[in-house]
Amino acid sequence: MIQIGELIDLITSVVLTLYLIKLIKDTRTNTKSFWFLGILLILLSKFLSVIEVFFIPVTINLVEHFSFMLASIMFAISVYQKEL
After folding, report:
1. Full 3-state SS string of the chain
2. How many other CB atoms are found less than 10 A from the CB of residue 9?
3. For the whole model, what pTM was predicted?
4. Is 68:24 a contact under the CB 8 Å cutoff?
5. How far apart are CA 84 and CA 50, in angstroms?
6. What is the pLDDT of residue 84?
7. CA dist., res. 53 & res. 10, Å (int)
8. Which tens digits make up the pLDDT trace of 37-49?
9. Separation of CA 74 from chain center
10. What is the mean pLDDT of the chain?
């Protein structure tokens, strides 16, 4: 059964990511950055947390947590390279 909190979290993440993409296009900032990749990895993990209910929950849960870990690494690289 889908948890309502995870679904609301996914919807909020999608809306904020779309708004972020609009802001990036308005300012002509490069979207090919480690920071933006980290944002997309967090969005992926939110999506995976919703679909893990339907099939192969153990594998999808592992991929979900792995994408959170990769997002953290991308943010660390972004800070190190002073992208923001």
Report:
1. CCCHHHHHHHHHHHHHHHHHHHHHHHHCCCCCCHHHHHHHHHHHHHHHHHHCCCCCHHHHHHHHHHHHHHHHHHHHHHHHCCCC
2. 14
3. 0.83
4. no
5. 30
6. 67
7. 14
8. 999 999 999 999 9
9. 11
10. 89
Amino acid in position 55: F
Range of the domain at 52: 4-80
Q: Are 8 and 38 in contact (CB under 8 A)?
A: no
Q: Is residue 61 within 8 Å of residue 39, measured between CB atoms?
A: no
51: exposed, middle or buried (C-beta count within 10 Å: 0-12, 13-18, 19+)? middle
Count: domains in the chain: 1
Q: What is the predicted pLDDT for the residue at 42?
A: 95
